[in-house]
Amino acid sequence: MRGRFLLLAMISALGLSWTPAGAQSVLDVASAAAVPPPSTNFFPLSEVHRGLRGTAYTVFEGTQPEAMDVEILGLLHNALGPHQDMILARLHGTKPEYSGVVAGMSGSPVYIDGKLLGALAYRIGEFSKEPIAGITPIGQMLEVRDGAQSSDLRAQVASAVRPASSNQDVNAADIRPIDTPLVFSGFSTEAVAFWKDHTPGLGLTPVAGIGGGGGDLGEMAPVTPGSVLPGSAVSAVLVRGDLEISATCTVTYVDPKQLLACGHPITQFGPVSMPMAKAEVVATVPSPLNAFKIINTTQTIGSFTEDRETAIQGVFGKPARVIPLTMHLQQDGASEKPRTLHLEVIDQQQITPAAVMVSLFQSLAQTNGYAVETTYRVRGRVKLTGYPEVRFEDLVAPTDFAPANLVAALALGEHFNRLYANAARRTPIESVDVDVDAMPGRRTVQIEGAQAGGTVVHAGDKVTIEATLRPWRGELKNVRIPVTLPATLPDGPIRLLVSDGGTLDRLMQPPQLAGGNLDVSGTIAQLNSQHANDRLYVTLLSPDPQAAIDGRTLTALPISMANVLEPVRDNRGMTLNGESAVPLGSVALDAVLSGQQVVTLRVE
């Protein structure tokens, strides 16, 4: 393939043209070494008509844009929405006719008479036999640079002369953005499937293991005149470092401060902050269904700040807002140092939680110590400006339905997302640190039963509770937990709950009434007070009132205090229950515990 492309470039340089059938092409293919014109002059939309000839630029291999001939077929009025026109065009030349419209080609600039017309941005149908594409007019893209309400450009689009076109009957359902390849460098196909399951539809095409990343964290390369050309590949980086996730399209417009690319949205989140990096095209892979480019990201040159309907905007030299993520992975009993991964994840509500989870998912799977029945101890620390550090710890074991690394990623995501997605959060997350210890085997136990040494007790007595546990693929075993009863217990029956930590959390941290959500401080307090899932707990179910206020639980309240709180029990930050859960004791099991039993005693 590469030799064939080089031969075509030599033929073109001699002023000849060639088609796969050996016949003379209708349009001469421009030299692959041609440099795109500067983005200073624009072709008026009012002068667009069928039969115009132009040139588009994109990268098929390497970093140098190559020219393609473009034949204008007509103008589709309001094809993309009110006052959002699209120019229909056919691409000519051996490469586009062989590969078709390629994922990653979005944003390829189109020029007529050396003036910038717009960007290749849309494809027509799934299995089109010809490379027919839709062009986003440059006027609509410049609105992103100048502000979405640029009245002058709106007026230009609205008052343009609408030439007749025989292509007005194109079905809008067949018009869709050219796919933007979302390259997962260092990730498996299972990790990509995990990403798809835990992110909203972003209009991106995930590609696993094809491409690579620069890996340098926080290093900004200067942009000199001519170092970023229209037609070159550019990447929006979602995760970078020892693993990388990046979305790549093509630069349309460049000025000394910024660029516009894609000609359609990547996510359409509006204001964004994503690292912007140069990209090298390793190869272009043809396919009747979905041709795509294999990408390596290279130097970071700024950040993308806008992701809008007609373009994404990048600003040179501007650092993106990212969250440092550090993961330390240790194999149980191993003598070597923990393996450490350093990553940076963009700070974007719709993406960040999934990016954190998929990074842990992949990091655990790619170790030599990984096995389907591995159990992980996951410790997390999240630093948030102006708040106490969030700490959580889980023992995570595989289940009959999910492998170990999937369960661990979901457990981390559940904790992180509760804090990250809090609507009251206004300060940035400074860092996320995760320590993971891998232990062989599936370490789970189930509570089968529980009993006390006797059924009659006295207030203040020491009582031994015996729980019967069934390990996974193991024999029953008994565990004894000595506890001391409160000295103030009244005569009569009492109940002791023998349970896992999750059951105890649900008793002590009930859901907020009226759909209320905790603020950031309350969420942190609740996360930091959660009970470990590898301990067996004994809890007194007392008839005294219990209040949960802003993530903190007050047990065994005096009646007088409960009466004071009763009028405000519907407050979004408080719940009031008629029964208290008073922890009496616990014992470590070194296995994930599930289940609950109630032991009834009588106090005399």
Please characterize this protein's 3D structure.
With 604 residues, the protein is of the alpha+beta class. Helix 5 runs antiparallel to helix 6 (352-365) and helix 6 runs antiparallel to helix 7 (404-420). The longest helix is centred in the last third of the chain and has 17 residues, at 404-420. It is elongated and about 100 Å long.
* Helical residues, percent: 10-25%
Structural class: alpha+beta
- State the distance separating the first and last CA atoms: 90 Å
Radius of gyration: 31 Å
Question: How many strands, which pairing sense, and closed or not: the largest β-sheet?
Answer: 6 strands, antiparallel, barrel
Sheet with the most strands: spatial strand order:
1-2-3-6-5-4
User: pLDDT below 50 for ≥5 consecutive residues: which ranges?
Assistant: 1-33, 148-173
Principal-axes shape call:
elongated
Mean pLDDT: 80
Strand content: 35-45%
Summed up, the helix count is 10
Total strands: the figure is 33
SSE topology:
Elements: H1 2-13, E1 53-58, E2 66-76, E3 86-92, H2 94-99, E4 108-112, E5 115-124, E6 132-137, H3 138-146, H4 151-158, E7 175-177, E8 180-185, H5 189-198, E9 204-208, E10 211-212, E11 233-241, E12 244-254, E13 258-261, E14 270-285, E15 292-307, E16 312-316, E17 322-331, E18 339-346, H6 352-365, E19 375-384, E20 390-396, H7 404-420, E21 429-439, E22 444-452, E23 456-457, E24 462-471, E25 477-484, E26 492-499, H8 501-508, H9 520-528, E27 535-542, E28 546-549, E29 552-554, H10 559-565, E30 574-577, E31 580-588, E32 592-594, E33 596-603
Helix pairs in contact: 3-4, 5-6, 6-7
